[in-house]
Amino acid sequence: MYNHHIAAFLQDQCPSDARLLIALSGGADSMFLLFSLIECCKKIPITLEIAHVDHGWRQESSLEAEELRLLANRLHIPFHLKTLDPNQLQGNLEAACREERYRFFREICSSRHCFGVLLGHHYNDRVETILKRLFEGAHWSHLNALQPKISIDGLLILRPLLHIKKNTIIQELESREIRYFTDMTNFDERFNRSRIRQTLLPSLSNYFGKEIDGNLVLLGSEMDEITEFFNCRLKQRMDHWISESTGHRLDLESPHDLQLVELKWLIRKKIEALGLFLSREIINEGAKAWKEGTKHVQFKTKSTCLRVDRNRIVISPLKILNDNRDLC
Length: 328
Fold this sequence. Notes:
This protein is an alpha/beta fold. Helices cover 48% and strands 16% of the residues. It is built from eleven helices and eleven strands. β2 (47-54), α3 (61-75) and β3 form a beta-alpha-beta unit. α2 (28-40) crosses α6 (166-175). The termini are far apart.
């Protein structure tokens, strides 16, 4: 049953003869994905390659990497390995490892001409991500969480398992006697996601007397719909941003005709596209000034300047402004 859904996903999202990279950790999710894809290959002409990242967090990780290499050889699937040294990574360890993984996947997809990378994220991962972002104060447009198909810095990411729950994955693996690794760091509550999985979600479900997973997924789906609505409604205006030496400019004939939430959307999405940062407060104040047609007002952070002059708004990285000191 699940292979049918996964095959339908691939046929819908990928070219018929696609070469696809599987991110294989060796855990239950990615092993379920691997063997499901092998079954799909009997019906649709996709080609598979495997990428494994040894994070070096555990003593047994190198042995697991070798076991996965041997498995790939038996399956006649090309195998790519990257070994990380946690002592060489800076900042948040989870974020640093994720960046290294994506860089590795991007390199393989480029050199091996893979259409994209398949990840084993499932229904429960989506629930955890929505809750994590909600408590971290993410903007509502980021509460959709874990898209089935998304491009990140040129890397196409595909997630065909988002409708499948974790307990179903475990049951399927056990019934088919497929061996998988259990990474005990997934139960280490020093990590946010582990605390959410092990403590927070069960506590919330117990408090409300029912599973809250479905309501969180429903919230994410509705945020998808609202985000798509704003994307469509404001696409033409987003296309009118002009890049120039002093920054990025958008002129509107009548900003006051738009709702405040629409003006904030135009600012936020441009900021995100540029990889810059402005606080919620600055975006809100900038949008108000823009809507009211305020003359010559500016808002600054350490990296970014937002300038409003009547129907015009300009977003500038401070590096550009330092080269044009009279402009801000």
